[in-house]
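## Example record

The block below lists the input lines for one assembly entry, exactly as stored, with component labels intact.
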Amino acid sequence: AQSVTQPDIHITVSEGASLELRCNYSYGATPYLFWYVQSPGQGLQLLLKYFSGDTLVQGIKGFEAEFKRSQSSFNLRKPSVHWSDAAEYFCAVVLITGGGNKLTFGTGTQLKVEL
Amino acid sequence: EPEVTQTPSHQVTQMGQEVILRCVPISNHLYFYWYRQILGQKVEFLVSFYNNEISEKSEIFDDQFSVERPDGSNFTLKIRSTKLEDSAMYFCAGKKEGYNEQFFGPGTRLTVL
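Predicted structure tokens for the full assembly:
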């Protein structure tokens, strides 16, 4: 079945530490890939996206993500986390063909930042 | 920078009542979407809308749901007879022709009592 998996429900890191949030997808074709962030009580803000080309993509707020076709992964990284990064992070995909344009989201990873 | 707006930010209603959630997409967007997020759960697709008709809908989007864009500006989601399990955050999103990025509104929190 087609799915998006975020294996880590909660992650806690210290401010200044590096961060990696995992995302795996299970689709027959390569989808378009996105990371969104949701702060408490807020909407969804697009951090970055991957459609094609360079597999390392840069986003806003110092985030980057790497697409690895062989692992069906699109992990989100940040070299040094700030307290304001505490939020919920969602990986999402859109199928390029046959799936319309709807976004399919993972279950999210709640990031806590310790000062 | 243009933003998607949604009203109201919070709606409380009694079970069985009708609610209408409103969205004003970015003006040059042509594709529109509704998603919902039940508290503590993931964001789920409800429906997509293009050229004044539904292009895709999920199993969640049953006969009690409807969407329309009556005036070419507002994009609405109507729930005819709300149930307790309709309590969720509802997000509107839009995208431009030829692009794959969807831009989300801040959401409407619907509470059904």
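The interface with chain B takes residues 32, 34, 36, 42-46, 49, 51, 90, 92, 94, 100-108 of chain A (CB under 8 Å). Chain A has a mean pLDDT of 91.
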